[in-house]
Design goal:
The protein is an alpha/beta fold. It is built from 18 helices and seven strands. Strand 4, helix 7 and strand 5 form a beta-alpha-beta unit. Helix 4 crosses helix 12. The chain is globular, with a radius of gyration of 26 Å.
């Protein structure tokens, strides 16, 4: 790279491009490929040269965009016109997700939150005000609706972005991205993160079956590739260089969250318990939904989908967390309540949190941050009107400050009931994971002891 002056740099770049075209561009398709490849290498070289150059803050600290070409300039980051990917997947409507009331409700609200992102400011008012979900963990038994939840949220975002003409990008990090070549799995994970976090798009990234994709540190059965992916995800989700703009969100899903690395799991700011249909009404609704309309079987005494009325169902689900669900947490709750009385002050709530930490040492300061973030989400527990998504001029196309003011007007005050419910909801999930993890370890040890005993018996019989 020649950097003595601007004209010399331009002449040098064009001279080398001319040389490459003469060697490689035998026809028009090869010409396009050659120019693109050269441009990518040139941008990378400029970025490397800039890394050691002084006094660049004025250029790197500001973002520009050429409106006519929708061409962004963000420091020395390689820039292309933002494009969304054409999604080829089955979308689900919220009415087609039976049960999973809290998970469905939070996914629907998160989809609308993402749409508040301001492309000019490159920031989301929800990220500034608090209450934006950057990462979440969805866990539940097989067949409870995790894939359906992904299809619903991706479908909502796809439809909202079409109305607003925003570029939307969905990506999934799967077991196919785990590679046997050293470093390749980490590169795949980094490319996935960068693709979704591109500030010029609305992004939704998922890691389905994360217990298989990302390795648990210290687990001898995890491959080097899985360990690489764990390291990349941990840095991306809550590392020193992580910037939450509010244009994207990442969902980690697993049937066996107890097998996910503790530190990576705790980087999930929100927990979506995907427990599937629960009540008698849920099972009637899902049976009617899946059977379709090609039958004449009478419905009977039942109001179809009434139990799926989201506000009523969610209120009941949150209310259910006013007391703990897991046996281990119930014991902590009973002991603290007997000692300090009702948890109605910050001091008493802090006493409860300390007691949880004494019962489970994995309950650290990061857990408290995740709980307080969840409480802030509850303070934003309002539905952005559907008209705002359907008519972009009402909200989406307004300036950042006006959007922020509109959202601030809808905020609710934080109550002690919210805090107690979110502590119990988060701690229940940690105790659930810990209990499962311990039980799985015990079962594996019992199985190993049984194998050893059987091996000894056969060995002695063989000698006899």
């Amino acid at each position: 790279m020649l950097t003595d002056n601007a004209q010399l740099a331009l002449h040098g770049a064009l001279w080398e491009l001319d040389q490459d075209i003469a060697v490689f561009a035998k026809d028009e398709p090869l010409l396009v490929a050659t120019v693109l490849a050269y441009a990518e290498q040139l941008m990378e070289k400029v970025k490397l040269r800039a890394a050691s150059a002084p006094r660049l803050e004025a250029f790197t600290g500001a973002n520009y965009r050429v409106g006519a070409d929708d061409f962004p300039i963000s420091g020395f980051e390689p820039a292309r016109k933002a494009r969304g990917s054409a999604l080829v997947m089955t979308f689900r409507k919220p009415s087609e997700v039976v049960g999973n009331h809290i998970a469905k409700y939070q996914a629907m609200r998160l989809a609308k939150m993402l749409m508040a992102y301001d492309f000019m400011r490159r920031l989301n008012p929800f990220a500034e005000l608090g209450g934006f979900i950057f990462t979440f963990m969805g866990d539940g038994k097989p067949g409870t609706g995790k894939t359906t939840l992904i299809q619903m949220m991706a479908g909502l975002l796809n439809d909202y972005c079409k109305v607003a003409n925003y570029p939307f990008r969905y990506a999934n990090l799967s077991i196919d991205n785990v590679d046997s070549y050293q470093g390749k799995s980490g590169q795949n994970a980094k490319a996935f993160i960068n693709n979704v976090m591109d500030p010029a798009v609305i992004g939704f990234g998922t890691v389905d079956d994360i217990d298989q994709v990302a390795g648990k540190r210290g687990d001898r059965q995890s491959s080097a590739g899985q360990q690489e992916i764990t390291a990349v995800l941990m840095e991306a989700f809550a590392g020193a260089n992580t910037v939450v703009r509010g244009n994207c969100t990442f969902g980690m899903f697993s049937n066996y969250p107890e097998n996910v690395d503790d530190a990576l799991r705790q980087r999930a700011g929100a927990r979506f318990l995907v427990d599937g249909p629960q009540s008698r009404e849920d099972y009637i609704d899902i049976l009617a939904l899946l059977l379709g309309k090609n039958h004449s079987i009478p419905l009977g005494e039942h109001e179809l989908y009434a139990a799926q009325e989201i506000k009523r169902a969610v209120a009941a689900s949150f209310e259910g967390h006013s007391v703990p669900h897991e046996d281990g947490l119930k014991a902590v709750w009973a002991e603290v309540e007997a000692r300090v009385g009702p948890l109605d002050t910050l001091a008493k709530l802090g006493t409860y949190l300390k007691a949880i930490q004494e019962a489970d040492e994995r309950f650290t300061g990061r857990a408290i941050k995740n709980i307080t973030d969840a409480v802030k989400v509850r303070a934003m527990d309002f539905e952005l009107p559907d008209e705002w998504m359907e008519v972009p001029e009402l909200f989406l196309f307004k300036g950042y400050d006006e959007k922020k003011a509109m959202i601030s007007d809808l905020r609710r005050p934080i109550t002690v009931e919210m805090v107690v419910q979110e502590i119990n909801r988060y701690a229940d999930s940690e105790f659930r994971y810990a209990d499962k993890s311990d039980e799985v370890a015990i079962e594996n040890m019992v199985r190993d002891f049984g194998r050893q005993e059987e091996a000894k018996r056969r060995y002695l019989e063989g000698k006899g």
